[in-house]
Amino acid sequence: MDFSQYTGFLLFMFIFTVGFWLLIFALTFIVPYWLVGSWIDRFKENRENKVKAKEETVTEESVL
Fold first, then answer.
1. Of 48, 29, 51, which is closest to residue 40 (Cα–Cα)?
2. How far is CA 22 from CA 8, 14, 27, in A?
3. pLDDT by residue (tens digit) across 1-34?
4. Which residues contact 1 (CB under 8 A, 6 or more apart)?
């Protein structure tokens, strides 16, 4: 194995391992962060909609 083959092999292994660790990082940190954040936003929206609906029913009852 001459020097150019050796550097090509090292470059390939570097790119492969960087991709592997980025995939592991994405699956263990980024995806759960995204899922929990979307769940929290949905929970807040549902709570706001419930409060808004409750206020509307109260104002309708007071008008009647």
1. 48
2. 21, 12, 9
3. 899 999 999 999 999 999 999 999 999 999 999 9
4. 9
From the CA atom positions of the chain, what is the Rg in Å? 27
**Measured between alpha carbons, how far is 34 from 41 in angstroms, rounded to an integer?**
11
The predicted model scores a pTM of 0.61
Distance CA 5, CA 46 (A): 59
Say which residue, 4 or 57, is predicted with more confidence.
4
The per-residue DSSP string of the chain comes to --HHHHHHHHHHHHHHHHHHHHHHHIIIIIHHHHHHHHHHHHHHHHHHHHHHHHHHHHHHHHH-
> Distance (Å, rounded) from C-alpha 9 to C-alpha 20?
16
